[in-house]
Each structure stands twice: as structure tokens, then as C-alpha cells.
């Protein structure tokens, strides 16, 4: 009897590893929540918004602002325009200091509105009000307001957090007027973690002819400047103020966008409890589908690995884009073209730099 040696079959090549990951993610989503399914099939049921008309952004060190104005097709001013930086504030104390230190030489008034509740109705301290001494360097420029939030009664369902968020943004219109804004001044409308670059704000100061309204394209980061995502952040905007027309908003208001105009550092907190606070209190708190999402060890692992805190698929309008964004955010070893104050104070803000993913409790 002849015994034939059996040849091993050739190894199976994973030709489409991303598709396999997509399939497994889809299967997991079906077993867990419908939101994942909705995001997975977004290319089938949703259409992308109209593309922005991009304004090229010219900047280099040691080039005069007058010359930069002219490169953009704008006219240099002889007297600087007043600039108002207006933000809704929750608990982003480190990013707020980074923002104000970076912009203080160019901003006339820092207008900050905070509430005694989160957008989900959870009572909260007035974090800015109790830490004012940290911002003494800008004391003469700060206009601070408190919005009376609506506390959620025990056992009662959440009120729409976007409604409460919208009410705060409407209240900002009043606070801007209290700050002394006038027609022709510039106002920056953005969240605390959407930080315009200093040279972007210098354009607002020194250039005439800039659009009455334009969005600011910002490079998006997650958890720190170690995890750059892309340039998809667009909600920040600047306006040449008109008492008759200008309304404080955080939605699309024009097709014009200034390219590469700042940094959007989302969930860039020093402490794990700050992550949990935001996850429970911001307008997308419904993304916390399971209790373990708030576990410190899990959050720490996700930060260092670049995973999504909510195990969500990316919001994309084509399957090609969706597949390209699946998985962890690749870390970067570069800390070039980040806020100058961050580099000048690297020891204090180590958690925002490459290699600093470990967080305090």
C-alpha cells in the first residue's frame, strides 16, 4: 500500500482585509445597535453636502501681514479691526488656556458663556468661574456670562440636548452685545476645542475685503496632537459683525472656507474623569451605548491605541472613504505646526504631544 504525502494547500490570501474588517464591524453592529448599521449604509441613504469653495491660505514666517493680505486679494488696513472670540464653554480648561494664550495678542475681547448644567441636563460646576485666576493674563479682555441651564429631574427622560445647546448659542448674541461689539468688528464663532491659528486671526485684524462670512477649515485631531485625523473640521466660522444680520451659530452658513486655518483637538483632556464628563454631558451622549464605555481602563486603552471611544464607524458618504477610515487613528511622531504655546510649555502639556497618551485619573 502506497501512502502518498498530502501537499498542504496554498495559504489563503486576504485580498480585501479592509472588507473583512468592514463585514465583522457590520456583524457586530447588527448585534449591538442600529446606529452602527445606519453609519455603515450612510452612502446609500444620505448625500454629502455641497462642496465648499476653498479660499487658498498663504502664510510663512517673516512675511509682512500687508503682503499676506495682498496675496489673498485683500487690502491692508492702517488700523487693526477689533476681533471678538466667542465660545460656549463646558470643562475644557487646558484647551481654553492654550487657545487664549495663543490668541491673546490679536483678540480684543474673549467672550465666554458657560452653564450650570450640561446639554443633557446634568448639574455641573461653573468651571471657568472657579478657575479665573488661571486666566489672569487676559483679565481685561474677558467677558464672562452664565446661562441658566435646565436640570433634568430624576426619572425624567432627556430633553433634546441639541435644543439646550441651541438655546445657549442664541444667548451668546446677547453676551456679544454686552461685550461692546460693533458693526464692522470681526467675531469668531467656534467651540473651545476649535482653535484658529494666530496668523488667521491677524488677517481679521489687518485685512479689508475678507468675506463677510467664511468658515475655517481646521486640521482635526483626536485625544491629542499625536493623532491627526484629517481636514474635515469646518464648523468654526468668522463674521464681519452686523447687528442686523449676524447670528451666533455652529452650523453651515456659507460655501466659503479658508483652508488650513487652525486646529480642532477633540476629546483632548488631561484627566480620564474629564472624558467621562463630556461623554455623559455633550449633545451626542446617546453614543454611550453600554456602561463599560465609561470605564477608565477602557478609555485609557482607546486613547493610546487611537480607537473610537464609542466603537462607531466614521461618518462618510462613500464606501471608499468609509473603508479607508475604519480602524484606529495612526499615531504621528510630529509636533510641527502645532500651537506655539504648547511647544513652549511642553512639560505642562505633555499629554497633548506625541508619546504622552497616558492620562491622570
From TrEMBL:
<dbReference type="InterPro" id="IPR006813">
    <property type="entry name" value="Glyco_trans_17"/>
</dbReference>
<dbReference type="GO" id="GO:0003830">
    <property type="term" value="F:beta-1,4-mannosylglycoprotein 4-beta-N-acetylglucosaminyltransferase activity"/>
</dbReference>
<dbReference type="GO" id="GO:0006044">
    <property type="term" value="P:N-acetylglucosamine metabolic process"/>
</dbReference>
<feature type="transmembrane region" description="Helical">
    <location>
        <begin position="12"/>
        <end position="31"/>
    </location>
</feature>
<keyword id="KW-0472">Membrane</keyword>
<protein>
    <submittedName>
        <fullName>Glycosyl transferase family 17 protein</fullName>
    </submittedName>
</protein>
<dbReference type="InterPro" id="IPR029044">
    <property type="entry name" value="Nucleotide-diphossugar_trans"/>
</dbReference>
<keyword id="KW-0812">Transmembrane</keyword>
<keyword id="KW-0808">Transferase</keyword>
<dbReference type="Pfam" id="PF04724">
    <property type="entry name" value="Glyco_transf_17"/>
</dbReference>
<keyword id="KW-1133">Transmembrane helix</keyword>
<dbReference type="GO" id="GO:0016020">
    <property type="term" value="C:membrane"/>
</dbReference>
